[in-house]
Amino acid sequence: MTNVASPLPASLAGLATLAANLRSTWDPPTRALFEALDPETWRASAGNPVRVLHGLTTARLEELAGDPAVVERVGTAAADLEAYLTAPRWWDGVEGGPQSIAYFSPEFGITEILPQYSGGLGVLAGDHLKAASDLGVPIVGVGLLYRLGYFEQSIDTGGGQAERYAELDLEHLPLELLRDDAGEPRLISLPFPDAVLHARIWTAQVGRIPLLLLDTNVEANGPVERAVTDVLYGGDREMRIRQELLLGVGGVRAVQAFGARPEVFHMNEGHAGFLGLERMRLLVEAGLDGAQAVDAVRHATVFTTHTPVPAGIDRFDHALALRYLRPYAQELGLPVERVLELGAEPAGVAVAASPGRPDGAFNMAVMGLRLAGRANGVSRLHGEVSRRMFRGVWPDRAADDIPISHVTNGVHEDTWLAPEAHALYGAELAAATPGSLAIDEAALWALRTELRRALVDEIRVRLRARSAGQVGADAAWVDEAFHPDALTIGFARRVPEYKRLTLMLRDPERLRRLLRSEDRPLQIVVAGKAHPNDAPGKELIRRLVSFTTAADVRHRIAFLPEYDIRLARALVTGSDVWLNNPLRPYEACGTSGMKALLNGGLNLSVRDGWWDELYDGRNGWAIPSAEDASDPELRDATESRALLDLLEDEVVPLFYDRADGVPRGWLERVRHAVGVTGPEVLASRMLRDYVEQLYVPAARAARGR
């Protein structure tokens, strides 16, 4: 909401418009403007323009209004936003495209001030909307507003992860309630077995793109129903099915209440699969029979699968699904068994059961695939894995004929490219013409040095804050921790077991030698969160923290808690090397390395996800995979040794091979990575692929059915 404590003078009225649009969180001039208004509040609020406006006193506003330079900056920024929102875009030249596309996702990682994400799925969804805004693609985003978000992370003295939850302060966020003609909040409702769930609709403006977020914390609900949108990925299986019914069924109703009429619906993972039920109901109401309704839904639906890992796919036991889906079967006029068949997990679907995830379950990804005419993985390799994984849905087809394609993920340039890098080569990158950067070596090295030093400053601030919170802690060492000119490796992600946070610790003494080198110093910064219920992931964090706090290496390796978009931005811009060592082929894409690449970081990664298709021998290093090894311990040991070999024999020597103080061989790789690979990892390329390969064909199929 953008009402401010004191009315804005007319000459500063543009500030309210700027703060109300989330473009303010990724547009560098707008960010710089709000920071200049109140630097202390800007820093304390993690860059929240609404909080900055709310903190401006009448006296301060009068002072700003009397400063011609400030008034000019406000006018320029407001005019630039207006031009951004109204200028012709790439979409204007697309033929046969849908008039509107509804994009459903359980999480959206747009900005750290709106913490509605847990990791890569949400950040990808946020970049999807931002790229759609840049290109003019007419998307409406649909999600849930989690009052307590995901969780805030701290690390105790034993290295254990602790979680805490903080309630969103909606008064200080760029959100508006959707209201009816009488000015009352517009509500949608849907049936649960023993209650009716009501939700209000908040809207966020992501550049040109509206994002609808459903919130069940309303008076019309009882305490149980109010809690449905408390926590992202929280609660038991019953809470999860409630959230996913709200996202799918409630999301379609919210889109209608908003007044949009999408021709194409896009499910970002199976969590949104229930949208098909509501769309079928509307089509049956319009006169189609059940078979026709299913056919119509398929023509106009796109489904993106994001993971081959069982924990990422929701599965509900038969009794729970039966209880919650019965009302929707009744609305459709179908036997509930017919509805359950949509998500029935067939033989040959490679999703292993585990405690709490029974065999023969109602599988949300399977439902999504059955109700979508077009489906895709998020990298070339992930498309291949998905075709094998879900071949049981199409038992009569060969693996190569399974109708799951791929669109490789991309990242939003203006969000993740450091302003300093944007100034140096942003125009060349935006031209999207592959070719090594034509940038002076000295200027490129100066940029990398500046970004690394900024990261070191951030690391020291966070280490100092952590040390200050420990009784009797000696924080003097922090002033010398990490060196601004040393080779810096970044490693940050969610912490499930398959991402192997501690692979580097398989030979701790060898790692210690690398870290303690004085002539060729190496330093590593790590961050990441484990799901609150993921005990193995928490144990990986504990083990790594235990290593990083040893007195002989703590100045060269650190684990930073509270991984969010703000910290991610510092890491991907400042790291010289981005490390990624998952168990191949469980990393569907992995976009953090793309963000580092855009900023001149080189990747050191197992050939999984996007790196499998875009590694070319000159844009980084590929860690050999021992995936054929039958013994998991042997595989980890082999790949850990290969990782340390590459560091010791290739990465470190190349970084410190200098001529006139400049690592020319290193910079040649940087130029190649940014100039040749960079255009391939942009979210604008990704969105064009979605439009041309999926959205336009879906719209044409829907019109021609």
- The CATH homologous superfamily of the largest domain is named Glycogen Phosphorylase B
Number of strands: 20
Q: What spatial form do the alpha-carbon principal axes imply?
A: globular
Overall number of structural domains: 3
Radius of gyration: 25 Å
The number of helices is 26
Percentage of residues assigned to helices: 40-55%
Largest sheet report: 10 strands, mixed
Q: For the terminal residues, how far apart are their CA atoms? A: 43 Å
Mean pLDDT score: 94
Point out poorly predicted stretches.
352-357
The CATH C-level name of the largest domain is Alpha Beta
Note the beta-strand portion. 5-15%
CATH-assigned fold name of the largest domain: Rossmann fold
Please state the second-level CATH architecture of the largest domain: 3-Layer(aba) Sandwich
Global structural class = alpha/beta
Entry summary:
The chain is of the alpha/beta class and 705 residues long.
What report would you give on this structure?
The chain is an alpha/beta fold. It folds into 3 domains: 10-86, no CATH class; 94-410 and 686-704, Rossmann fold (3-Layer(aba) Sandwich), CATH 3.40.50.2000; 424-680, Glycogen Phosphorylase B (Rossmann fold, 3-Layer(aba) Sandwich), CATH 3.40.50. The protein is built from 26 helices and 20 strands. It is globular. The two termini are 43 Å apart.
